[in-house]
Design goal:
The chain is an alpha+beta fold and about 675 residues long. It has 17 helices and 28 strands. The longest helix is centred in the C-terminal third of the chain and has 20 residues. The mean pLDDT is about 95. Bound molecules: dioxothiomolybdenum(VI) ion.
């Protein structure tokens, strides 16, 4: 750590709450106790578009234990908030199949669920449109893409440069909708006390949720407290409050008792968000030496009629490779579908599948090794912003990875290697993810009995946040980790970054270090520090993590079955704070990348306007047998332009690059370029 002896940082400390978790003592939102609690079950729309004609609650109300049936007929009026998905029961409009249109509150979960099935709803359906397709007449260019990037960027004249390029790749890629499936389904417990709301929520950010809930219920933010002690995965789907949080709070208001809501796995598929499908055209122009002269990347994506969610698919293309003439563009169409939302490395992940596949195609077209091609196109500065990178060690990752993976001597010809009926191939792809920070507040104090405590509204969604913050605090205080107690997961601790955007540790860690430094200087009592000014004052640099994934696949020549025999990721992410939890993040991300490459696909039933596969029996996420040899490594990287720890976020970069590495390996094995994910048998065999 800058200026501080690093003792705990860099060690593989095991998760502090590990024992609590494996013994079942760790309480997740739904497991929090509440006196007199009632249970709420949603009723979801069975049409994809239209209006509710009538809600008949009579049969449900007649069942034993039922306390209330809530719908737009009788629900309390809500305030205003940007995410229309949260404004439950405010109109009779049905925007998508699976939307929450009513709910039952009852003495038990079983009674609530049974009664939910007995609420009769008559609809006036209208034609729905749930298909993302090129040429859709309602495509439009959004004003911004997430979180606030321009939708279109142009430098020079990409069209003209493409027209005169020696070598051109012009390819269209597609990705399907895919759904986050955290182990812990989204759940909430709401308690109203004299107009104040206490919400235990499975959420990635208690602080942000507090403000949103305050908007929804039109009360001052000080009257809302959000607690998220333990969260069983999120990957973005818990980045912002989801409808079940609002539902719990509405129901608790209606029955004047604490209320719990847990979504079923099936309900997750409609109301907690998913990765938008994309259709992406990438055009690369280059000289015969592989040096890029033009890059054009255009993405076509969907959103819903409830809310505009514009994924930033082309943003990595803006900073990856040098080329004088450049164009990126996003087009969006609002369909009668659930609203897409955050999913691990939104933008970077699907965008880099297309870009890194196209780069591989260019390497083939130029007869160059794909690593060499990437090295030839390394930019000196951020190509679009024209400012220096705080550090950029993509080349080092490629070289280190090539060495460890055994890339040297690779015969580039497709189908050159076989083992019986298995065709063997290897592929590589680059990865990147921004290194952000957001303002956070931490409080550090001397404990009366000796030692220290630190509190911050950070969230540990299974990543090890509690553990790494303890390591960071210990070093800042100059003590061993066992002398520091870190409390997190409570909006009462003040403003804090969301556990998302790979910015949690960098943001919270900065505040923790500053609070600990201030405490030592003060010498007694407690000190709170907020980091807004420090972050605002940082120098102008392009801050990104980089990495490279290498995949080896075997493809059954007869059936088209693809197995990933080996995957290696090498990352440049500043200082690694905890090698044990970091490795888990990296290989978890790469596992999700293999999964996106081969397995995950939410299949839309166009007739009904709903996803056909809505559980873990039909929506395939990888099991241990799907993941063979997988390893993560990192290079030494000193970057003092980041934060006091010198660290970059690591939550998302593992997935970026992995799907393209697999697809590029499949091409190498078979000669078949699969440009649409997932790489199904039929797409390999054609
Ligand atoms: Mo991540 S999609 O920023 O939680």
């Amino acid at each position: 750590m800058t200026g501080v002896a690093s003792r705990a940082v860099g060690t593989p400390l095991s998760r502090i709450e590990g024992r609590e978790k494996v013994t079942g003592e760790a309480r997740y939102a739904y497991e929090q106790p509440a006196e007199g609690v009632a249970y709420c079950a949603p009723v979801t729309a069975t049409i994809a578009a239209g209006e509710i004609d009538a809600v008949d609650p009579a049969r449900a109300l007649a069942l034993p234990g039922v306390l209330a049936v809530i719908s737009h007929d009788n629900a309390p009026a809500l305030g205003e908030t940007a995410d229309g998905e949260l404004l439950l029961f405010q109109s009779d409009r049905v925007h998508y199949r699976g939307q929450i249109v009513a709910a039952v509150v009852a003495e038990t979960l079983e009674a609530a669920r049974e009664a939910a099935g007995c609420v009769r709803i008559d609809y006036a359906p209208r034609e729905h449109d749930v298909s993302l397709r090129l040429g859709h007449p309602r495509f439009y260019t959004p004003e911004k893409v997430n979180p606030s990037f321009p939708a279109v960027t142009e430098h020079g004249d990409a069209e003209a440069a493409l027209a005169r390029a020696d070598v051109v790749v012009d390819a269209t890629y597609a990705t399907q909708p895919i759904h986050n499936n955290p182990m812990e389904p989204h759940a909430s417990l709401a308690v109203w006390e004299g107009g104040d709301l206490l919400l235990h929520d499975s959420i990635q950010g208690a602080w942000g949720a507090r403000r949103t809930l305050a908007e929804v219920f039109d009360i001052a933010p000080e009257r809302v407290r959000v607690v998220a002690q333990h969260v069983g995965g999120g990957f973005g789907s818990k980045g912002t409050p989801r409808p079940q949080a609002v539902l719990a709070a509405i129901a608790a208001k209606v029955v004047e008792r604490p209320v719990k809501v847990a979504l079923t796995r099936q309900q997750l598929f409609a109301v907690t968000g998913y990765r938008t499908p994309t259709i992406q055209r990438v055009r690369l122009g280059a000289g015969r030496d592989g040096r890029l002269t033009a890059i054009a990347h255009e993405a076509y994506e969907q959103t819903s009629t409830v809310r505009e969610f514009a994924e930033q698919t082309c943003t990595p293309t803006r900073m990856m490779y040098a080329a004088p003439d450049r164009l990126t563009r996003h087009e969006l169409v609002a369909l009668d579908v659930p609203t897409p939302s955050w999913m691990r490395a939104p933008g970077e992940c699907p965008g880099m599948f297309a870009l890194e596949s196209a780069i591989d195609e260019l390497a083939v077209a130029c007869g160059l090794d794909p690593i060499e091609l990437r090295i030839r196109n390394e930019p000196d500065v951020d190509p679009e912003r024209g400012i220096p990178f705080s550090s950029r060690n993509l080349v080092a990752c490629l070289r280190e990875g090539a060495e460890r993976f055994g890339w040297a001597g690779r015969d580039p010809s497709p189908g050159a290697r076989a083992d019986g009926r298995w065709l063997l191939g290897t592929g590589v792809a680059a990865a990147t993810y921004p290194a952000y920070r957001a303002p956070s507040k931490a409080t550090a104090r001397f404990e009366p009995g000796g030692g220290y405590s630190v509190s911050i509204a950070a969230t540990d969604i299974g990543t090890g946040a509690r553990t790494v913050l303890t390591q960071i605090a210990a070093d800042a205080l100059g003590v061993d980790p066992e002398h520091v107690r870190v409390e997190i997961g409570d909006s009462d601790f003040g403003q804090a970054a969301v556990a998302g955007g790979s910015m949690g540790t960098a943001s919270w860690g900065t505040a923790v270090v500053r609070a600990c430094e201030a405490l030592l200087e003060q010498g007694e009592g407690e000190v709170s520090v907020s980091t807004g000014d420090e972050i605002k004052a940082q120098s102008k640099r392009s801050r990104h993590a980089f990495g490279a994934q290498f995949a080896e696949v075997r493809v059954d020549a007869d059936s088209g079955e693809v197995r990933v025999s080996r995957m290696l990721g090498v990352f440049a992410v500043g200082r690694v704070i905890n090698p044990k939890t970091a490795r888990s993040q990296f290989i978890g991300g790469m596992t999700q990348g293999i999964s996106m490459a081969l397995h995950e696909e939410s299949v839309m039933d166009r007739e009904f306007g709903d996803y056909l596969n809505r559980d873990l029996a039909q929506y395939h996420v990888p099991v241990c047998a799907d993941i063979e040899d997988i390893e993560a490594a990192w290079i030494e990287e000193d970057d003092d332009e980041l934060n006091p720890m010198g660290s970059k976020g690591i939550g998302e970069i593992g997935i970026v690059g992995s799907p393209a590495a697999v697809a590029n390996a499949v091409f190498h094995a078979t000669g078949r370029r699969v440009r649409e994910l997932p790489i199904r048998l039929d797409r390999v065999l054609v």
